[in-house]
Amino acid sequence: MTIGVVGEMRDGKLTQETIEAICRAVHVKEQLKMTIELVLMESRENFDSPWIDRWGADRVIVYERDHSERLEMEAKLSTLEAYVRVTKPLALLFAGSIQGQELAPRLATRTSASCLVDCTAVKVDPVDQELLVTKPIYGGNAYGEYSAPFPCYLSFRAKSIAVEVKKEVPISIQWRMIEKTNEKVAVVSHRLLSAATYDLEDKKILFVCGRGLQKLENIKRVEAIASRVGAGVAGTKKAIENGWLPLETMVGQTGKILAPELCVVLGASGATPFVHGVKNAKKIMSVNKDQEARIFEVSDLGSADDCESVIEAMERKFV
Ligand SMILES: Cc1cc2nc3c(=O)[nH]c(=O)nc-3n(C[C@H](O)[C@H](O)[C@H](O)COP(=O)(O)OP(=O)(O)OC[C@H]3O[C@@H](n4cnc5c(N)ncnc54)[C@H](O)[C@@H]3O)c2cc1C
Description:
Layout: E1 2-6, E2 9-10, E3 13-14, H1 16-32, E4 35-42, E5 59-64, H2 73-87, E6 91-94, H3 98-111, E7 114-119, E8 121-124, E9 131-137, E10 142-148, E11 152-156, E12 172-177, E13 205-209, H4 216-229, E14 232-235, H5 237-241, E15 262-266, H6 272-278, E16 283-287, E17 301-303, H7 307-318
Parallel strand pairs: 1-4, 1-6, 4-5, 5-12, 6-11, 7-11, 13-14, 13-15, 15-16, 16-17
Antiparallel strand pairs: 2-3, 8-9, 9-10
The structure holds flavin-adenine dinucleotide.
Flavin-adenine dinucleotide (FAD) binds near residues 271 and 306.
């Protein structure tokens, strides 16, 4: 039997979310005695195989797509439907990306599988040999454990597992053709709503701006400090709703889950949905004028101070 991992590549390399999904599959593989098949949709020009054999997949199936053409969601779904028809995987794990979160439920509906998205852990039930899946519930205030009847499709929250390199073993790579679709709806044009890229995932230092920063001018001051120290700038939901920062920079349950080396949280209360986004940081340093603020419960270092005085001190040092 097979566990399929539906992966993604960027610049010819497996994405971090794909590697995390393979590591999840490795965790349950031994108990279920299955092989792990990594499923990709990529052009030969973009495909770069080094390192593909180090994460624990047993086989790679690459559905070859045209290098010059954009692969629409419908074509991806038809291709995965064909894969499911042929392979009948017991479980399909999707990369915890925006695409993975969309593909999993849509494919599950088409192929009558059970599906859970935004999962944070998976293990095998020793009695029933079913998968037991953990995921946040009630707005992130609690975790629920669900049994996922086979066949089941799961997508995981990004950065909720540490990746491990397995011993490199020779791995077979099989090329197949992308499925043709009989689409009734065609995409005629794509319009980029925002050209900005916020590579917050790669930043070692992250400043998070909360509503306690009071005004846009203070966000700009934080941005100036961040640019001097090579840090990223993100915001809480309230800061984003105030229009101080773009939506792409929202951290938390609804936004990005980030794991920088150092996260400096300025004027955020520490609400649970927000904390989900930063709790994987190696160190959290926070400033909040309310010494009872919940953010201090998850902080390694806290300053019960006015944000502005801390900003001034950082400006003196860095700007
Ligand atoms: C389903 C759901 C999903 C959600 N998802 C997210 C999410 O992904 N991300 C997210 O951020 N939120 C999310 N939220 C909202 C979340 O619950 C909080 O409302 C939000 O995080 C609060 O933002 P904040 O801390 O900036 O603002 P506030 O709660 O208003 O806190 C501001 C803090 O600043 C402090 N402060 C005020 N003035 C100063 C000053 N001068 N100096 C220092 N400190 C000061 C105050 O003491 C206060 O603690 C979600 C909510 C729900 C229900």
